[in-house]
Amino acid sequence: MNVNSPKILDEKMEQYFRWAEGCNKVKKALPGSVLDVPSMEIVKNPANTLRKICTFLDITCAEQYLQDCAATVHPVPSITRDFIEWTAEQKNSVYERMRKFSFFEGFSYEQ
Fold it and tell me: Helix, strand or coil for residue 55?
């Protein structure tokens, strides 16, 4: 069953891109202090992604801890956009707005 509520989706899109703008401001204000971690990277390779995060934060973790954490990650991503009716205008709007942010490179609606 799909949800068809364009107004709510528009509101959530606005909220999401306000958050993205905030993230972008922090990245510009504090170069090198923010690590971009695509969600699919966590799903595809959780132990290495967590290792990368720990290294960035200068935290030492035991290998068993990394493996235990990785074991809690579900190997199949939840793609909630598949349960929401999107208009062509909404999809186009998202693509257009994503272009402003380097951390959205490689993301698409279809993937």
Answer: helix
